[in-house]
C-alpha cells in the first residue's frame, strides 16, 4: 500500500515495504541519490536528512516512520535561507575532498544553524560528531559553519 | 563523436559536434617510456563557438584534487582564463590518455611536464593559424584569455575562430615547445576550488554508487568470511523464492583476492531487497585451509621469530657486529603495529553491462588498466571489448588501486547479458574484504659511541611474506633512513604467512615505518642526551644525497634540513620545555613519495587520554605548489588521518581466518572534536613539483608518539595508543 510523505516540498506516494529504510526509498524509489549510504548502522552520518526539521539518519528511519512527514534532502537543502548560506559557505571554503560525506555534513550543519544561529565550538562538536569524514575535512567544516553563522 | 586513429606523430582534428560547436581534439605523443614504447599524452581540448574551453581530466578524482589540478596545467599553457574552462572526466584508455592510475602521489610528478606540453602544443597551433591568417610571423604574436593578439596592430582573434584552421596544422614536436616562464603563471600557483564542489554541495549524482541505467538490477555478493574459502553448496532456491528477487547466481572466482573469490550474488530491482535476502541465504563454504589464521597466532609467531635467526637480509653495510661490540651504549626496543582497513566512506561498488560479447563498466577505480586486465582474464574477453568509465570516487586511500569489485561486477553482469547490474558492498562486506595495511614487528638495536654519535643500526623486521618475498605493501626499503646516513646498517626480515589480502593504504609502508623508525630514533636521541631534531640534523649534515634506487630521485639532505629547521621555528621547539606538566611537544621527520615533511605535535594527556592541540607542518614538494588551497587540504587531511591511526582505536583483527570488525563502531575514524589546529608551510626549493596526497601523513604519527613521551615519560611502542598504555 502507498505511503504519503512530503519530500523537498513535494507530495510523494511510495509503494513499498514500510520496513524499508528511508535512505533506500530516497535513492531507489524517488531517484534522490544525493543522500549517501555509508554504514547502514547510524554510525557515519552520510545519510543524514531532515524529518520535520530534525536531522535524522535515513538508514535508521523506516518508510513507515515518515508517513505524512516532511522530509528534506540535500537536493532541497538550499531552499531555506540557512540552507543557502550553508551551501554558499561550503563552496567558499571549498570544504569537500572526495565529497562523499558532504551531503550528510551539510544536512547536520543546516539543522544546527536552524536551531542555534550562533553555535560555539562545543555546539558544533555536539551537532557534527555523528558525521564522519574519511578525508578529514573537519577544519573546513567548522570554518564553513562559523562563516555561515556570521 | 568519432575519433581519428592515433598516429605515433600525433594528430589534431576538427569536426562539427552536435549543436554546431567545433570539436578540437588534440593528441600529442610526448615522450618515450624507458622501454621504448610511446607515452601518449592526449588532452582533449574542445573549443566551443562562444570561446569556452572544455578540458578533459584523465585521472580518477578520489579527493586528491587531480580533476582540478591536471586541467589547470593544460589551461595555463593554453593561455586561457580559468573562468572560460569547464572540466570533463575522460574515460579510461591508456592508449589514448597515457597513465591514468591515481596512486603513489605520482600524478603530479608524472604529469607536470606533459600536461603543460599538451596545452602549449594547442596554443602553438592556434598561434600558427592566426599567423597564417594575418601573414605575420608566429613569433610576433601573443596570447591571453583565449585570444591571439598582434601587438603591432592591436588586433585579436578568439581561439574559437581559429580552431578550425589550427586543427588542420601538424602537431608540433613537444621538444620544440617553449613553455611559460613561471613568473608569468596566472593559474598555476593560484587557489582553485574543486571543480565538482558546487555539484557535491547540491547533491547531484557524481559517484559510482549513483550510476543509474535503464533496467538496472542491484546486486549483493556473499563470499566466504575466511579469505580463500571456496563454494560448496547453498540454499539458492529458497532465496530465489523470496519476493522481489530477480536472480541468485553462483560466482566462480579464481581464488585470488585481486580477481575475487567464489561467491553467491543476489540480484533485485532494489539493493535493499537483495541485501535483505542474505538473511535467508545459507552457504556452505570449504574454508578448512584458511581458518587457522588469526591475529593471536601472528603475534605468537612474531614473538618466537624475534628470538631466532632472520630469514634473510634486506641490506648489510659496514661492520655491524664490530660497531655493536665497540659501542659505548646500545639502545634496544621492540615496535609493532596492526593491520588497518581503508574504510573509504563510499563502499566498493561497480556497475557493468555485458552485451554482444562486450562489457561496459562504470567504476570508481584508481587503477582502471589493471582492472581491464583482470576483467579480460576473468571473462575471456579481449581488452578492447571492455570499456571503462570513471566516476568520482568517494575516497580512495589506495583501496581502489585494487579492482576486485570491478571483476566481480563483470562476472555477475556476464551471467545476465543485456541487463545492467550494480554491485554494492555493505559496510561489513567492505571492511571484511579489504586489502589491509599489513601488521609488522620490528626488533631494533642501535649503537652509540662515547661521543653520543649513532654508529650502527639493526632492524629485524617481522613481516608477512609468500614464496620468500614480502606480500604487497609489507616491504622495507634498504634505503630507509638512517641507512645511507651511517656506516653500519643491518636490516633483516622474517616472514609470517597469512590469508589476509594486503594492499596499499595512503603512504603505504611509510605510514607504519615512519612511526617505528622516528619513534625509535627519538629513543636513540634521548640515550645520546639530545633531542631528535638535533640528532637528525647531525646525521643529515654528513651526506649530500642518499640513493633511493633506480628510477627514483635521490634523497637530498639539504631539503630535509630545510623542512626540519622550518618546523622547529614554526612549532617554537626551543621553548618546548616551558609547557605545563602533562603537555609535551614531539618532532618527527619523514621522507616519502618524494616529499620532505617535518612536523611538530603538541599534545596534552589527562587521565590516559591524549588530546592533540596543535600540529605544525613544514613540507618541501618542490618549487611550485600548483593549487595552494588543495595542497593545504591534503596536508590537513593527512595529519588528521595519521592521528586517527594512532588514537582512534583502529586495528583490524582476525579470528579463524575472518575479520572481526564490521563497521565504524569497531574500526573508528577521527571525528570533528578530535581536530587540532594545523599550521602548514611549504619550503620551496628548485625541484620539479611532486605529489601531496601522501607524504604529510607518515611523520605525524611519530611526532605524536614522541610528544606523548615528552608529556608523560611513557614510550608507546605499539599502535593503536590505548588508555592502559598511559596510566
TrEMBL record, chain B:
It comes from the Bacteria. Pfam families: MoCoBD_1, MoCoBD_2. InterPro entries: Ald_Oxase/Xan_DH_a/b (IPR000674), AldOxase/xan_DH_MoCoBD1 (IPR008274), AldOxase/xan_DH_MoCoBD2 (IPR046867), AldOxase/xan_DH_Mopterin-bd_sf (IPR037165), N-heterocyclic_Hydroxylase (IPR052516), OxRdtase_Mopterin-bd_su_IorB (IPR012368), TAT_signal (IPR006311). SMART domains: Ald_Xan_dh_C. It comes from Sphingobium xenophagum. Residues 202-289 form the Aldehyde oxidase/xanthine dehydrogenase a/b hammerhead domain. SUPFAM superfamilies: Molybdenum cofactor-binding domain. This is Isoquinoline 1-oxidoreductase. The lineage of its organism: Bacteria, Pseudomonadati, Pseudomonadota, Alphaproteobacteria, Sphingomonadales. GO terms for molecular function: oxidoreductase activity.
Amino acid at each position: 500500500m502507498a505511503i504519503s510523505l512530503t519530500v523537498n516540498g513535494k507530495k510523494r506516494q511510495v509503494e513499498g515495504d514500510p520496513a524499508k529504510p528511508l535512505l533506500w526509498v530516497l535513492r531507489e524509489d524517488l531517484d534522490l541519490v544525493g543522500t549517501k549510504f555509508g554504514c547502514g548502522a547510524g554510525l557515519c552520518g552520510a545519510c543524514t536528512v531532515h524529518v520535520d526539521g530534525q536531522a535524522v539518519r535515513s538508514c535508521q528511519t523506516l518508510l513507515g516512520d515518515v508517513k505524512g512527514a516532511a522530509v528534506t534532502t540535500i537536493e532541497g537543502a538550499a531552499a531555506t535561507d540557512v540552507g543557502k548560506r550553508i551551501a554558499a559557505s561550503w563552496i567558499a571554503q571549498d570544504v569537500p575532498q572526495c565529497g562523499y560525506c558532504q551531503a550528510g555534513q551539510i544536512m547536520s550543519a543546516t539543522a544546527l544553524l536552524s536551531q542555534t544561529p550562533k553555535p560555539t565550538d562545543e555546539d558544533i562538536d555536539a551537532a557534527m560528531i555523528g558525521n564522519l569524514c574519511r578525508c578529514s575535512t573537519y577544519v573546513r567544516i567548522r570554518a564553513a559553519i562559523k562563516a555561515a553563522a556570521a | 563523436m568519432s575519433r581519428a586513429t592515433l598516429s605515433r606523430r600525433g594528430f589534431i582534428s576538427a569536426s562539427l559536434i552536435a549543436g554546431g560547436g567545433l570539436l578540437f581534439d588534440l593528441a600529442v605523443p610526448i615522450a618515450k617510456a624507458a622501454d621504448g614504447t610511446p607515452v601518449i599524452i592526449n588532452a582533449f581540448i574542445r573549443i566551443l563557438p562562444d570561446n569556452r574551453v572544455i578540458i578533459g581530466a584523465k585521472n580518477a578524482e578520489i579527493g586528491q584534487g587531480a580533476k582540478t589540478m591536471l586541467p589547470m596545467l593544460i589551461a595555463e599553457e593554453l593561455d586561457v582564463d580559468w573562468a572560460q574552462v569547464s572540466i570533463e572526466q575522460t574515460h579510461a584508455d591508456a592508449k589514448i590518455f597515457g597513465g591514468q592510475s591515481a596512486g603513489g602521489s605520482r600524478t603530479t610528478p608524472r604529469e607536470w611536464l606533459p600536461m603543460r606540453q599538451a596545452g602549449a602544443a594547442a596554443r602553438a597551433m592556434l598561434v600558427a593559424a592566426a599567423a597564417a591568417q594575418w601573414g605575420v610571423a608566429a613569433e610576433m604574436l601573443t596570447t591571453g584569455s583565449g585570444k591571439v593578439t598582434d601587438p603591432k596592430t592591436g588586433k585579436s582573434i578568439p581561439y574559437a575562430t581559429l580552431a578550425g584552421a589550427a586543427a588542420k596544422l601538424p602537431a608540433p614536436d613537444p621538444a620544440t615547445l617553449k613553455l611559460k616562464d613561471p613568473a608569468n603563471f596566472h593559474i598555476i600557483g593560484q587557489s582553485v576550488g574543486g571543480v565538482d564542489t558546487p555539484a557535491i554541495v547540491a547533491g547531484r549524482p557524481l559517484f559510482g554508487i549513483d550510476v543509474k541505467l535503464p533496467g538496472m538490477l542491484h546486486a549483493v555478493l556473499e563470499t566466504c568470511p575466511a579469505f580463500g574459502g571456496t563454494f560448496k553448496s547453498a540454499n539458492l532456491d529458497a532465496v530465489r523464492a523470496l519476493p522481489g528477487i530477480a536472480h541468485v547466481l553462483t560466482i566462480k572466482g579464481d581464488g585470488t583476492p585481486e580477481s575475487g573469490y567464489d561467491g553467491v550474488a543476489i540480484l533485485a530491482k532494489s539493493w535493499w531487497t537483495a541485501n535483505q535476502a542474505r538473511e535467508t541465504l545459507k552457504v556452505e563454504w570449504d574454508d578448512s585451509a584458511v581458518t587457522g589464521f588469526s591475529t593471536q597466532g601472528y603475534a605468537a609467531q612474531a614473538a618466537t621469530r624475534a628470538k631466532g635467526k632472520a630469514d634473510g637480509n634486506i641490506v648489510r653495510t659496514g661492520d655491524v657486529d664490530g660497531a655493536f661490540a665497540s659501542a659505548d651504549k646500545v639502545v634496544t626496543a621492540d615496535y609493532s603495529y596492526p593491520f588497518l582497513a581503508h574504510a573509504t566512506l563510499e563502499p566498493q561498488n561497480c556497475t557493468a553491462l555485458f552485451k554482444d560479447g562486450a562489457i561496459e563498466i562504470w567504476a570508481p577505480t584508481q587503477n582502471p588498466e589493471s582492472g581491464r586486465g583482470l576483467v579480460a582474464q576473468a571473462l575471456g574477453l579481449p581488452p578492447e571489448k571492455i570499456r571503462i568509465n570513471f566516476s568520482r570516487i568517494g575516497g580512495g586511500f589506495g583501496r581502489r588501486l585494487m579492482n576486485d569489485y570491478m571483476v566481480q561486477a563483470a562476472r555477475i553482469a556476464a551471467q545476465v547479458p543485456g541487463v545492467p547490474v550494480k554491485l554494492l558492498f555493505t559496510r561489513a562486506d567492505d571492511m571484511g574484504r579489504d586489502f589491509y595495511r599489513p601488521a609488522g614487528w620490528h626488533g631494533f638495536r642501535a649503537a652509540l659511541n662515547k661521543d653520543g654519535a649513532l654508529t650502527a643500526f639493526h632492524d629485524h623486521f617481522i613481516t608477512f611474506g609468500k614464496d620468500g618475498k614480502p606480500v604487497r605493501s609489507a616491504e622495507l626499503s634498504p634505503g630507509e633512513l638512517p641507512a645511507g646516513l651511517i656506516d653500519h646498517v643491518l636490516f633483516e626480515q622474517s616472514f609470517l604467512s597469512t590469508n589476509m589480502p594486503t594492499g596499499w593504504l595512503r603512504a603505504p609502508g611509510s605510514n607504519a615505518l615512519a612511526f617505528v623508525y622516528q619513534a625509535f630514533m627519538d629513543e636513540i636521541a634521548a640515550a645520546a642526551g639530545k633531542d631528535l631534531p638535533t640528532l637528525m640534523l647531525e646525521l643529515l649534515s654528513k651526506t649530500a644525497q642518499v640513493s633511493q634506487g633506480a628510477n627514483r630521485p635521490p634523497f637530498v639532505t639539504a631539503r630535509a634540513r630545510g623542512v626540519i629547521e622550518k618546523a622547529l621555528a614554526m612549532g617554537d621547539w626551543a621553548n618546548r620545555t616551558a609547557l605545563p606538566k602533562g603537555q609535551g611537544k614531539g618532532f618527527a621527520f619523514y621522507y616519502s613519495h618524494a616529499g620532505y615533511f617535518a612536523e611538530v605535535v603538541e599534545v596534552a594527556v589527562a587521565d590516559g587520554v591524549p588530546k592533540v592541540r596543535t600540529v605544525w607542518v613544514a613540507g618541501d614538494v618542490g618549487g611550485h605548489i600548483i593549487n595552494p588551497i588543495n595542497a593545504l587540504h591534503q596536508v590537513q587531511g593527512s595529519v588528521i588521518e595519521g592521528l586517527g591511526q594512532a588514537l582512534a582505536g583502529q586495528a583490524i583483527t582476525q579470528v579463524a581466518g575472518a575479520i572481526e570488525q564490521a563497521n565504524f563502531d569497531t574500526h573508528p575514524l577521527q571525528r570533528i572534536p578530535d581536530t587540532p589546529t594545523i599550521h602548514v608551510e611549504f619550503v620551496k626549493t628548485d625541484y620539479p613539483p611532486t605529489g601531496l596526497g601522501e607524504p604529510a601523513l607518515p611523520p605525524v604519527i611519530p611526532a605524536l608518539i614522541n610528544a606523548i613521551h615528552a608529556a608523560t615519560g611513557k614510550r608507546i611502542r605499539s599502535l593503536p595508543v590505548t588508555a592502559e598504555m598511559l596510566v
